[in-house]
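re: the backbone from monday

yeah here it is again, tokenized this time
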């Protein structure tokens, strides 16, 4: 092997080439380092873009999606590739598209940033996502402007705000109900006393004119009007939750007849009312006042729907059998015999979205001041509390049909009131106490007619003094609860302190402090709600003295 051991000396030309090579190598190394740093920066930016808790879209001037981050796609229920190339309007709620597109156009035209405080996006599963959307134009060196959309999810914030609104509405409703309850309680006593006299004296008159059918028919109309007024007071008290339900066998045919008699005059002439009830009684076990409330609410809604252009209101009753193979599939509805109430109108109808929410408390399509949004919610609650079911079908500009099913009773409810002369008679001495003189006169005449000896007074202190003097002279004490100088329960305690076995019958139209259970706990034998009619008083006395 031959090796040259002389020192290597670069020529000037070689030296220049070496310097050029070194410079290029350094430049290439620097370029590679910059590329690596840029790639690392891009990866970091992409990770930030994909994982930041904001929804990002990049949209071209035609509104097509050219980029979306992974977080945004995932929140909306999509894969990224499913959204690429799609119109951005496809994920915007139809009602919000107009304001969204106008904001994009303004952004591109003026190169400004726009903020839409509240916008609804539609997820892949059809549910709604509320967002706060920032819309900003971004320039490109060699292309048209793009639009960057950044969206903050404010769904929970909106739910909280809506819950707060509902709470405020419920608070206002509670305050309104308290005011109504106070008013109802205030008028119930006096109004029931007036009704008691009307009903009581008309009953006495009917007993005196048994042979005069013409006069009896007049008095029966007075009785019917008084009963409707009594039921109206019960409805007011029930609506304000100050009275208990009184369930009995109720013929819905009679309920419909009575409701129509009350509302027909308030309907415009442009609304025709058609009734189809069939020959068979439609008897259910229910609170009659609440059944009236159902029919009145549904008819009132029908009238509102047809108020502008008129139409037809159809009310029908029929028997319906729910077979066993259907009973299990129908919510809270057992197989068996039912009464089907159908109320149909040809009004403006409702959209499917409205139908879905129609029984929600506080939901209403009426203008402010025209409705509370509680009517149908109350109807829904009453129906289900009676073991029934209510459904609704509706089409815009066609009309609405409500169908209500109640378990049927196989009993007969008489269409006419029973004769006064069928009431039980009796004997014995009764102490009758009421602060209304017309009621003490009525009670004295009625009970005397039934065979009793009656001592009456409008002053509970006077009654107590009489009783203290001769406690064994009296067989029964009948007293009002709400009296200005002494309440009925206070009088009852004083009487029972004197004579523990004295039977007491307490009557009240309204009281915050007294109920049938409390009266029984005090030792009071019987409890009647005013206005008290002769029949209920006669039977209560017979039961006490039996």
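seq for it, each position gets an aa:
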């Amino acid at each position: 092997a031959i090796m040259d051991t002389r020192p290597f000396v670069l020529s000037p030309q070689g030296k220049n080439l070496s310097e050029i090579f070194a410079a290029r190598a350094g430049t290439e190394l620097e370029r590679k380092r910059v590329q690596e740093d840029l790639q690392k920066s891009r990866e970091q930016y992409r990770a930030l873009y994909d994982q930041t808790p904001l929804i990002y879209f990049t949209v071209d001037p035609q509104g097509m999606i050219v980029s979306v981050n992974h977080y945004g796609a995932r929140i909306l229920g999509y894969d990224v590739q499913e959204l690429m190339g799609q119109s951005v309007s496809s994920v915007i709620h139809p009602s919000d598209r107009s304001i969204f597109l106008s904001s994009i156009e303004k952004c591109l035209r003026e190169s400004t940033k726009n903020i839409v405080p509240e916008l609804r996006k539609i997820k892949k599963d059809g549910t709604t996502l509320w967002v706060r959307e920032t819309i900003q134009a971004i320039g490109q060196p060699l292309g048209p402007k793009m639009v960057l959309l950044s969206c903050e999810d404010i769904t929970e914030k909106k739910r909280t705000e809506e819950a707060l609104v509902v709470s405020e509405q419920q608070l206002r409703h509670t305050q309104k109900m308290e005011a109504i309850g106070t008013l109802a309680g205030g008028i119930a006593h006096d109004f029931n006393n007036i009704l008691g006299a009307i009903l009581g004296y008309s009953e006495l008159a009917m007993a005196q004119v048994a042979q005069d059918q013409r006069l009896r028919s007049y008095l029966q109309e007075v009785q019917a009007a008084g009963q409707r007024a009594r039921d109206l007071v019960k409805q007011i008290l029930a609506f304000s939750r100050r009275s208990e339900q009184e369930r009995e066998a109720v013929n819905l045919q009679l309920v419909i007849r009575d409701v129509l008699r009350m509302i027909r005059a308030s309907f415009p002439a442009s609304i025709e009312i058609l009734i189809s009830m069939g020959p068979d009684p439609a008897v259910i076990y229910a609170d009659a006042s609440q059944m009236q409330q159902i029919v009145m609410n549904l008819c009132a809604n029908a009238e509102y729907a047809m108020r502008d252009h008129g139409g037809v209101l159809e009310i029908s009753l029929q028997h319906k059998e729910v077979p066993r193979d259907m009973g299990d599939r129908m919510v809270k509805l057992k197989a068996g015999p039912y009464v089907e109430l159908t109320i149909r109108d040809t009004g403006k109808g409702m959209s499917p979205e409205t139908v879905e929410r129609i029984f929600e408390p506080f939901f209403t399509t009426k203008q402010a001041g025209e409705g509370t949004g509680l009517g149908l919610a109350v109807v829904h609650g009453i129906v289900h509390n009676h073991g029934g079911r209510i459904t609704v079908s509706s089409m815009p500009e066609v009309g609405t049909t409500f169908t209500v099913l109640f378990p049927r009773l196989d009993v007969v409810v008489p269409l006419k009131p029973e004769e006064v002369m069928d009431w039980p008679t009796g004997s014995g001495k009764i102490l009758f106490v009421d602060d209304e003189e017309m009621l003490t006169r009525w009670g004295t005449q009625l009970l005397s007619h039934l065979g009793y000896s009656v001592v009456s007074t409008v002053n509970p202190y006077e009654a107590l003094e009489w009783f203290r003097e001769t406690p064994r002279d009296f067989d029964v004490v009948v007293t009002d609860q709400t009296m200005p100088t002494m309440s009925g329960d206070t009088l009852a305690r004083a009487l029972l302190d004197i004579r523990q076995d004295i039977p007491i019958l307490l009557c009240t139209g309204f009281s915050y402090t007294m109920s049938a259970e409390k009266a029984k706990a005090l030792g009071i034998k019987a409890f009647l709600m005013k206005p008290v009619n002769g029949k209920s008083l006669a039977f209560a006395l017979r039961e006490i003295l039996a």
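The CA atoms of residues 255 and 261 lie 10 Å apart. The chain has four domains: 1-47, 52-153, 247-419, 420-545.
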